[in-house]
Structure to design on (185 residues):
């Protein structure tokens, strides 16, 4: 009888369940008739494996380079965007601050000048009243002086006053002789 417990025989060791697609997808290192591959076949397989490893290494290096370039571009883009945003923000902030300062200054000026406007109007009204009062007083002074002078002149030289009155009667209000108005130009 065979020894089933010998080290050479393992009933379940090499056994595995067979799948239908194993025949189509299985790539064997052996030739189709179960022989050991030749030296040329091993060299071809080694070259194919080396080419695959080189392709994978190149792909890995290319991806790493691509990632470094992407990170550098992202960093540069972020820095440029940050700088541009900072510049635009600073300009907008200065502009808004200037507008706000102008508005506040206008409000403060208006607040400070408002009482002065009232004072100016009151001063202007007072000057007008003073002008009216001074004009009235000057007219009264002129009339009083004229009366005094007229009475003195009438007493001293009545004939001279009569000549002046006749002359004034023959003149227009503009001071030109009345006879000059009747003459054509």
């Amino acid at each position: 009888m065979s020894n089933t417990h010998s080290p050479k025989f393992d009933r379940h060791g090499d056994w595995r369940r067979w799948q239908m697609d194993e025949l189509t997808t299985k790539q064997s290192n052996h030739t189709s008739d179960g022989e050991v591959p030749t030296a040329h076949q091993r060299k071809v397989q080694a070259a194919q494996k080396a080419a695959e490893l080189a392709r994978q290494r190149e792909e890995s290096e290319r991806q790493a380079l691509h990632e470094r370039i992407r990170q550098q571009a992202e960093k540069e883009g972020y820095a440029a965007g940050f700088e541009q945003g900072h510049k635009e923000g600073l300009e907008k902030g200065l502009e808004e601050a200037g507008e706000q300062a102008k508005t506040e200054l206008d409000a403060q000026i208006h607040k400070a000048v408002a009482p002065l406007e009232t004072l100016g109007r009151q001063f202007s009204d007072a000057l007008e009243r003073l002008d009216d009062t001074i004009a009235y007083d000057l007219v009264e002074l002129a009339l009083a002086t004229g009366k005094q002078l007229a009475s003195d002149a009438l007493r001293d030289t009545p004939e001279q006053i009569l000549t002046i009155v006749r002359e004034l009667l023959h003149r227009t209000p503009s001071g030109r002789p009345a006879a000059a108005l009747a003459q054509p130009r």
Remarks:
- The chain has four helices and no strands.
- The chain has a mean pLDDT of 79.
- The two ends are 171 Å apart (CA to CA).
